[in-house]
Amino acid sequence: MKIFPVRGGIHPDYRKELTSEKAIVPMPLPRKLYLPLQQHIGAPAEPVVKSGDMVKKGQLLARAQGAVSASTHAPTSGRIADVAMVTAPHPSGLPQLTIMLEPDGKDEWAELPQPLADPFAASSQEIRERVAAAGIVGLGGATFPSAIKLNLGSQNKLETLLINGAECEPYLTCDDRVMREYAAEVIDGARIMAHALGTAKIVVGIEENKPQAMAAMSQAASAFPNISVVGVPVQYPMGSERHLTQAITGLETPAKKLTAELGVVVHNVGTARAVHHAIRFGRPLLSRVVTVSGGAVTEGKNIDVPLGTMVSDLVAFCGGLKEPPRRIVNGGPMMGQPLPSLEVPVVKGTSGILALTADEVNERDTQPCIRCGSCVTICPCGLVPVEMAAFIRKDNLDGAAKLGVMDCFSCGSCSYVCPSHIPLVHFFNYAKGRLNEAERDKRKLERIKTLAETRTTRLEQQAQAKKAAAAAAAAARKAAAAASENPDNKASV
Amino acid sequence: MTLAYTDKSAPFTHAPTSVQKTMTTVILALVPATLFDAWLFGWPAIFMFLITVGSCVVAEALCLQAQDKPVGATLSDGSAVLTGWLLAMSLPPWAPWWIGVIGSVFAIVLAKHLFGGLGQNVFNPAMVARVALLVSFPVKMTAWVTPHPLFSDKGLSFADSLAITFGHAFNVDTMTAASALGYVKTELSRGVPVTESVQNLPDLMDMAIGLHAGSFGETSAILILAGGLVLLARKIISWHTPVALMGTLFVMGTVFHLINPDRFADGTFHLMSGATFLGAFFIATDYVTSPVSKQGQIVYGVGCGLLAWIIRTFAGYPEGMAFAVLLMNALTPIIDHNCRPRAFGRTRKGEPLEVKGEK
Predict the structure, then answer these.
(1) Residue A473: helix, strand or coil by DSSP?
(2) Quick check: is B143 in a domain?
(3) pLDDT of A436-474, one tens digit each?
(4) CATH code: domain of residue B140
(5) Domains located in chain A, CATH noted
(6) In the sheet where A60-63 sits, what is the strand order?
(7) Residues 316 to 355 of B: which have CB under 8 A from any A CB?
(8) Which value does ipTM take for this structure?
(9) Which residues, numbered 340 to 359 in chain A, qualify as contacts with chain B under a Cβ-Cβ cut-off of 8 Å?
(10) The pTM is what?
(11) How many domains is chain B built from?
């Protein structure tokens, strides 16, 4: 299959060998699980249990609220200890409402929905409902509710389901291991998703640094002529939805549009496997594979972790930290979030927990920009990071917006190559936050303005109506008076 | 409990790059040519080189101190050494000590720190210094000495060399010759056609190797070219600026030579003579003063090549590379503004692309 060139990109030190040969091991049940109500993009789920309730494995704990949301289920059986504020796995370290579950050790299943006997005979809607009920979100890290993404076929003419096995982030090997060990499950999940989407073709894109995963997936897909497993160049950020789509189809997704408008929908391999579990066994999303790695961890592992497990328990399972880390990262080193501590839970979007040493992070003091242009050359979005940063430094955010800062998806390539160690992405994240805030304020202001105008019009209309009524009443009175004074002259009214 | 820092966005890994590494690589690429020229022109050239680099470093240190900036840390980025090095390579090898010192003040104080220091200067510091020296001291700046290799019969003693650099014992007329470009230009003004005057020059092979009169850096074309190729291989520079510059110079030279060989020197002569290689690989590619995008670098390179050819051919100065680069430096912001790459998913004008098949 022809692979199309993608602009820019970098070749970081991948360090995947730390964990790539470590088979996925199950995490023993910790003493307590912490399940935040928001583990996804959209509205937080609404808890349906309260402190003291006994729950079984797979039982619904919090229900999706609103159009974009996802449910959460009990990863094991036990007692609800509390529903309270707990530190979220976020750089801010702010707390969010979290369900705390004390496992009873029995791991007793709740009654699960019956598996679909033949998913390929089921309607798209039926599959989507099952996926939504299972609380499945994009497991590549974006955590967008998958059921909504499976509905893209209703508005677009879709041709290809692209299964993203690129895993271009350094260190992370969870998708690699899932593809090697559970290829058949991934392929089955992909076929079910393709059926729901109405796409004829399935393409699995895997970076060429994962030959075993390629082999396993090709083998699993060999029975299905509509599935092709394709190697893509090792070039960060190949796993970006738009860039992978371009590499495989040659199509460039227009700004502010979805790949679906080109007939392509992209789902992660882990998501496909979760769909397989939900449809074939009725099991909701209760655990995910997490890579624990980095130079400060005693032994890196790929672990099947129950959602809600404290990162500290996870790290303890890996033998703990052998030295103080410089950074703890939730996700990959290029796009992951920094964590203040290990006392946060693993959530649906946690693809990796990295404890990185100062050597690995290689931070230095920022030096003046020497305009070397490396950031311009490697930007996979064709932006001009050096100029955008100059605008943002002067707080000229509109100037940065004109240069396309909102098109930046913070892949980190520019910061990575900068010889002056300028934290360019930090600048862009700041600008994006401020610009989004300004946009929200603007919308709010417009809404207030509309409401105020409506109110004024309504008040004016009321006043006018009152006046008209008063005038009519006065006229009527006058007429009545005139009639009573001069009962013969009726024609004058 | 805070276990790790969260004061910065990802990425939490970094390429093994630094300003210091970049500058050091450029300097290393200049070393072979520098050693060759040191041998070719002997002790006076070595003195001139050390004085120029040394006074650039001192000027940088004083400027940093005056601005309360960290002196040691900033000096170690290597940019002042590189500026001094490039300036030295563009000077006549036997220039007296004060040429190097004044040039360093022009380069570091005027061209660099008055604009805000590293990364802020609009014009290439070494070229500002060279041009300022050239217009201020035209005689000293065009005293191209013929080769006096060390350890050869023509080589000078250490004492004589000291006298040349620091005294007035240097009789300009007896030891200098015109550079190739200068000779052709002078002869042309006397009515001697280019076709005849080039006969009296060293052949192209000698020019390439460097066995002729010229500035410190323009005499060893092959070694400069080798250094430039090292920079290309190490991805310190890209091919865009040098190829555009040399290509333009060559095409202009060749085309006009075909039209009138008596008036115009040919393309190969333009490539091999003067500071073409030094300019194309080391001067025009200066990060700070050249455009950041590849498209911009091509426009910039073409501009440099064109201006260098025009100045060499029609203007009063035989060598135009420094002027050409400075003029194009002034255009860099405009080129940057107009030569941005096309953003992903957008047209060149910045509008979102249309979905195929959408009316």
Answers:
(1) helix
(2) yes
(3) 999 999 999 999 999 999 999 999 999 999 999 999 998
(4) 1.10.3430
(5) 16-27+121-289 (3.40.50.11540), 367-487 (1.10.1060)
(6) A46-47, A60-63, A72-73
(7) 336, 340-346, 350, 352-355
(8) 0.87
(9) 340-343, 354-356
(10) 0.88
(11) 1
